[in-house]
Sequence to fold (335 residues):
Amino acid sequence: MSEKLQKVLARSGQGSRRELELMIQNGRVSIDGKTAKLGDRLEDGHDSIVRIDGHKINLVAPSEEVCRVLAYNKPEGELCTRHDPDGRRTVFDRLPRLESGRWVSVGRLDANTSGLLLFTTDGELANRLMHPSHRVEREYMVRVFGDVNEQMIKNLVNGVELEDGMARFEDVVYAGGEGMNHTFYVMLTEGRNREVRRLWDSQGVTVSRLKRVRYGDIFLTKDIPRGGWMELELKEVNYLREMVELKPEENTMLTVEGQKRKKGVRQIRRAVRRHEERINDDSPRGRRGRQDKRRSSSRNKDAEATSQGRRKPSGNAANRRNPLKNKPAKPRTRK
Fold:
């Protein structure tokens, strides 16, 4: 039995099938020293040597693959690309390293868009989740600037002709606003380039903030701070696989302790902050300067509290916090 070359490479974590088809078309893939072409297949039990851009690829057999999925809270300003020639931050900079294969992003978000972005080691899963035929729901919180009336909402739900064809929101729910600023939750079942922004632009209003809050039934909660990630449990991975008609995964890379909600919010925040400090600090002087600044800030706060007659809390009182402060937001549901 044989499999298409792009399917084998996707399973080995080299990208989605769509990305790999482009690599093959551009002559970047070879089999046993010969440039591959679309339609090439690999037989089961083969010993062929496959290379991408001259680098040998460790091919993964179906029985060896463990499907992993990460939920990442993308901040604004990060790019959905592996390498940026200008040295700007990318969404792959903060992800955990893999011993083999690589993380494949499930779709993209614009640099100015924040929120939930899924990553997986299974290129076939990524390809199916992105494909419009599976109609996987994507929900966004969007803030727009301008007058919005009922006819505009009807237009957006019924469909608008864009430069690349008809597009529409499956659902639009008003979430409040003041003056010319209005917030909505909108839902799509496809992921065309800048589709949410272009739909609102067609009605003469401008998107001032855009954040993805849901992909399928995977919600972005307060458990994941900006720039942080969390690995999905096996039942969540299999929910995604079942949704796109893939066989369930039997194994997970999470430990037993990891399945008890993995890392705490504070621990993730500290990891994100350390990552940012490593990027910003190019020299020991930068680290010393930051430490001195923290000490000075701490002393100033203590002095200010003393002058105002407030005593600095100590012991258990210093660690006491509002139990509702970091409570995850309740997922938004529709009747």
Notes: Residues 283-290, 310-331 have pLDDT under 50 and may be disordered. The longest strand covers residues 206-215. The two ends are 48 Å apart (CA to CA).
